[in-house]
Amino acid sequence: MRKVYLDNNATTPLHPEVKQVIEKNLDLFGNASSAHFFGQEARKAVEQARKKVAGLINASSEEIIFTSCGSESNNLVIKGVTCPDIHCKPTDAPAGRHIITSQIEHPSVINPIKSLERQGFKVSWLPVDKYGLVDPDLVKKAITRQTVLITIMTANNEIGTIQPVAEIAKIAKENNVYFHTDAVQAVGKLEVDVKEMGMDFLSLSGHKLYAPKGIAAVYIRKGINVCPLLDGGHQERGIRGGTENTLGIIALGKASEVAIRDREKNLERLWRLREKLRKEILEKIPEVIINGHPEKTLPFTLSVTFKYIEGESILLRLSANGIAVSTGSACSSGSLEPSHVLLAIGLPHELAHGTIRFSLGIENDEEDIDYTLKVLPKVIQELREMSPLWAGIKK
Q1: Helix (H, G, I), strand (E, B), or coil: what is residue 307?
Q2: Would you say the pTM of this structure is higher than 0.90?
Q3: The domain spanning residue 283 has which CATH number?
Q4: What does the alpha-carbon distance between residue 132 and residue 199 come to, in Å, rounded to a whole number?
Q5: Using one digit for the tens of pLDDT, what is the confidence trace for 243-301?
Q6: Are 182 and 203 in contact, with CB atoms under 8 Å apart?
Q7: Is 83 noted as a catalytic residue in this protein?
């Protein structure tokens, strides 16, 4: 049976070159904070990798802080900017207890903000349109004298919609408000330039761009201080205590290097494969909805609602045929609740439950798409034949 992995937004396999650099450095065990030869050898490798990660988003090396995952990066910014410890931040930093975000953010943004909301912070949860787009004018109108942070993701992990983050960042700057973007799904796949886009903070994650799990980074614009999320040693300029994950950092550096080299080539090929999948689903299967923006979208993400059946049943049937997909975000796949993203764009509960996310990666080829298009229509037809809702439609 052919195996087809179409869940790359959840996690990606290791790039062969990343795997090679990990194997090459398995014996690099020194603590990067130690002064002896073994430590200095590790420190050199860490700083070389930091330069590569910085280069991926056009940042300076000193603006890159390594973390364990995208969730930690998001929490570090959200809690680090809003913490009450005045010793952590300069006196000219935005001060207040108001945050602006959208209704379709990742749980690692939503949940820390909800935690702050329970502590008395005011939060503006901005709606999105039917494509999942945030209106920059709504951002501007939501700003108050108490606004300290605006956080809007670069691209949505479920439906792929790309947000006007550069425009929103400009609005934030004009109002002396910090701007953060969760760019986990975009960095390494799209061109992301923090200087040109005007970011104050940006989160990225290794396992979304063919590096291992357990390594990520956050960009913090030079001159901005935040309170540490993990108090500990002096590592990462005192912003993130704990012994550096040297091997993971090296791997992320290599993945960044490869991404810069191959990004344009991969984008063109993945867009072609995604479009083939989208067009043939529409041709071969009736009663479907394509979610997200038709143009402003990640070229490797396709969210499809199949009416009158459950997404979980589709997922399991496809898995039995060797095809891996998702019913939404991997971070919420254990929940019985419909996707908050799909509800925010206006899908009714019953349709949201019938949605599948196909997310392509660099290992996918045309044969993978052909095989999926061979199996998928049969799966949908079989499930619909068992659905009382579909029986009612056919009558």
Answers
A1: coil
A2: yes
A3: 3.90.1150.10
A4: 21
A5: 999 999 999 999 999 999 999 999 999 999 999 999 999 999 999 999 999 999 999 99
A6: yes
A7: no
